Amino acid sequence: MLLNVNFPASRPKGLLVTRLSTHRFEDQVVERLDPEGKPYYWIAGTPAGEEEEGTDLWAVRRGYVSVTPVSLDLTAHGFLEALSGLLEGVAP
């Protein structure tokens, strides 16, 4: 699990725990270098899309820091058993 934290452009009014919105950025992704010279990527531009109450975009546009827990498990759990059967005997 990761925490996705977004800050408003002005001094925050507070902090809200949110869910992810379905927005996208209209402009660009900018490559930058950290203090050790390693690259990282900054999503720059104007977010466009859903601004439903309780989402990260909604909170930030109203001046709050948004904290969203994000799960990265992309495993197709429903296919694990079938795949095991398909691959049975393929590898020692």
From TrEMBL:
Its EC number is 3.1.3.5. It comes from the Bacteria. It catalyses: a ribonucleoside 5'-phosphate + H2O = a ribonucleoside + phosphate. SUPFAM superfamilies: SurE-like (SSF64167). It is an enzyme of class 3 (hydrolase). GO terms for molecular function: 5'-nucleotidase activity. Signal peptide: none annotated. This is 5'-nucleotidase. It comes from Thermus thermophilus (strain ATCC 27634 / DSM 579 / HB8).
